[in-house]
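Re-run with default settings, no changes from the original entry. Doing this only to confirm the output is reproducible before filing.
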Amino acid sequence: MTVSYTLEVANARFAGFTKLLLRWKGSIYKLLYKEFLVFCFLYGLLSVIYRCVLSEVQQELFERAARHCNKFAKLIPMSFVLGFYISTAFQRWWGQYTSFPLPDNLMMVVSGNVHGVDERGRMLRRTLMRYANLSSVLILRSISTRVRKRFRTLRDIVEAGFMTDVELETLNHLHSDFNKYWMPLTWFSNLASRAREEGRVKDDIALRLLMDELNNYRGKCSMLFHYDWISIPLVYTQVVTVAVYSFFAFCLIGRQFVRPEKADELRVHVDLYVPVFTLLEFFFYAGWLKVGELIINPFGEDDDDFETNQLIDRNIQVSMLAVDDMHQNLPPLQKDKYWTDKGLSPARPVFMGSTYDMRVTDEDMEDVMAEDHMVPVSVWPPAAKKQKKSRAAKCFCCCSKHTTPAEKMHEGEAEGIHMIPTKTHTGSQGEDTTQTDAQTQCVLTLERSDEDQASEIRDV
C-alpha cells in the first residue's frame, strides 16, 4: 500500500521531518539494509586482513593499492550520473501516474448525455461504464503484477462482474498478436451510436462529446501500454549501476585507514575502525540508486507502488453510482473472489484523505470556534430579511387623520417591503380617489425603501 505521510507534515514545526526517519515501511532503510550490511561486512573483512593477517611487505603493497584506488575513484562523476538518471526516472514515474485511466470525466458525460429513467436507459449507462472499466482492467492486468495475481485468467474477470460470458467468447474469437484492451472501447462506441439512434442521446453534439471523452480515456490506456513497452534504455541503466557499484568496490580498498605515506602526516592521521563518512556516502549514493529502482516501474509490489487493485475497485464503484439513477450502491465487485480469499472487503476505505483518521478533541473545536469569523456571503435567491421601517413609511402611516382599512393594509405592506400594493376598488368615488392617492404615496414609499435597502447592503 502506498505510504502517505501528508498529515504529519501538514504543519511546519521544529524537527518535523525527524519523526519520518523512524518509519520502516516504505523507508530507505528497508530498501538498502541488505546492500549496506554486505558493504560493512566486506569493509570489515579487508580491514581485519590488513591489520592482522598481512605481513609488513604485504601491508605496504596494500597501502599503495589503497592510495591508488582512493585517488582514481574520485574521477567517477557519481553526482552527475545519478542525478540525471533519477530525474529521468522521476519524470517517467509522474507520467505513468498522470496516465492512469480514471473514468470520472467519462462517467459525468455519460450521466448527463445518455438519457432515460427506465430500466433500459439505466442499463445502457451501466454497460457503457462497465466497458470503460473493463478496458482499464485489461491493460492493468498486462502491466501490473498485483492485478495479474488478482485476475490470473479472463474467467476471473468474468466472475468479478466486469465481463459477461458472451463478451468473453467474442474477445477470445478475435485473434491478434497485440494487446486487445481496446476492444471494450469499441463496444462502448457502438453502444453509444445505438443510443443515439434510439434518441437517448439527444443530438450529434452530445455523441461527439461522448466520443471525445472516450478517446481521452483510450489515450491514457495506450500511454500505460507504451510506458510498459518502452523502458529507459538499458545501456543507461547499466552505466549507472556499474558506476555506483564500481565506485564502492574501489572504496572498499581506497577508504581503508592505512598508515600515511609520509612521516609528517602521522601528527594529523586518525586511525578509525568504522569509516563513518564512507558509510554515509554509501547510504546516499546507493540509496539514490535504489530510489531509481523503485520508481522506474511503479506497477510492482513495493510499498510505494501504485495501489492498482484498490483503484480498480474505486473506479467501478464510483462510475456505477454516478450513472445509476436507481441509486444501487452494490457494484458487481461484491462477488470478486480476490477479496474473499484474503478475508477483506472491496468496499473498505483505502484512502479517504489525509485527515480521515484525524482525531479532533473538544479543545480543538473551541479553538476553531474562537477563531471563526462570520463572513458575509451573497447567495441567490436572496433570503428574506426583516427590513427597518423607513421615514417614508412612517410619513405614509401618519399622512392622514383618518386611516381606512385599505390604508392599514398598505401600511403593513410598506413595513414588510414585500410587494407594491394594487389598486383597491371601493364603492364611492370619493373613497376611490382617496385610495388612489394613498396608493401613489405607497408606491413612492416603497421606492424610497428600496434605496435605503441598497445603501444598507453597500455599507455591509
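Residues 116-229+307-342 form one domain. The CA atoms of residues 126 and 320 lie 6 Å apart.
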